């Protein structure tokens, strides 16, 4: 089940390629994923005119270092302050029905997700004033048992072909819709935060 986030990102890439952004303009041009070797481990990246999509190459439990590096790399690459760039972490989530996509405010409960715990530890909003960060979760359901070992086995179990198809054909467009909503909200906040003499 932990491959859900990566498969959802692949689905998102397709949705962006065929979709529209928050302003209604076409957002086509999102390329396929290819190896990106600027970090200590090669990751898969899709860098388009608007979105940069990165698949973390690390173990889920220690993904914080990579996410922090990616954020700092993006800031340097674009040469902009944190308030002018957005960061969204896409991840799987127990307790939510399979395939359901939800936007989570940054800093809200990690719900026992060790990857989110790691990211929260390594990347803190107080170090980047004005930064626009959020999480988007994709539900993977959970087993009826509450036994920790059985839950762990469930989370580590492979997706079925039917589940893979559902992610590929349905989840990407839902994630893109969430991204568009976040963008609209962040643009409003950015405009509101701008000094009046700068407008």
Chain-wise SSE layout:
Blueprint: H1 4-18, E1 34-36, E2 43-47, E3 52-55, H2 64-78, E4 86-93, E5 101-105, H3 114-122, E6 132-139, H4 148-156, H5 161-193
Parallel strand pairs: 4-6
Antiparallel strand pairs: 1-2, 2-3, 5-6
Helix pairs in contact: 1-5, 2-3
Textual characterization of the structure:
There is one protein chain. The protein is an alpha+beta fold and 199 residues long. It has one domain: 3-Layer(aba) Sandwich (Rossmann fold), CATH 3.40.50. The protein is 41% helix and 17% strand. The chain has helices at 4-18, 64-78, 114-122, 148-156, 161-193, and strands spanning 34-36, 43-47, 52-55, 86-93, 101-105, 132-139. β1 (34-36) and β2 (43-47) form a beta hairpin. α1 crosses α5 and α2 crosses α3.
- Under CATH, the topology is which? Rossmann fold
Number of strands: 6
Count of domains = 1
| Model regions low in confidence, pLDDT < 50 over at least 5 residues | none
Biggest sheet descriptor: 3 strands, antiparallel
Q: What is the CA-CA span between the terminal residues?
A: 47 Å
């Amino acid at each position: 089940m932990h491959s859900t986030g990566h498969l959802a990102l692949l689905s998102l890439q397709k949705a962006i390629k065929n979709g529209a952004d928050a302003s209604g303009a076409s957002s086509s041009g999102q390329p396929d994923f290819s190896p990106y070797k600027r970090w200590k481990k090669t990751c898969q990246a899709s860098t388009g005119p608007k979105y940069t999509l990165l698949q973390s190459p690390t173990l889920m439990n220690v993904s914080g270092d990579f996410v922090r590096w990616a954020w700092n790399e993006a800031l340097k690459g674009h040469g902009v302050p944190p308030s002018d760039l957005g960061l969204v972490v896409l991840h799987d989530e127990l307790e939510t029905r399979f395939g359901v996509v939800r936007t989570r405010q940054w800093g809200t409960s990690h719900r026992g997700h060790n990857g989110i715990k790691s990211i929260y530890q390594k990347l803190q909003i107080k170090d980047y004033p004005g930064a626009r960060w959020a999480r988007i979760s994709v539900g993977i359901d959970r087993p009826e048992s509450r036994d920790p070992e059985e839950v762990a086995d469930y989370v580590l179990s492979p997706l079925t072909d039917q589940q893979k198809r559902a992610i590929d054909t349905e989840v990407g467009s839902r994630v893109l819709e969430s991204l568009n909503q976040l963008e609209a909200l962040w643009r409003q906040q950015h405009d509101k935060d701008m000094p009046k003499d700068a407008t």
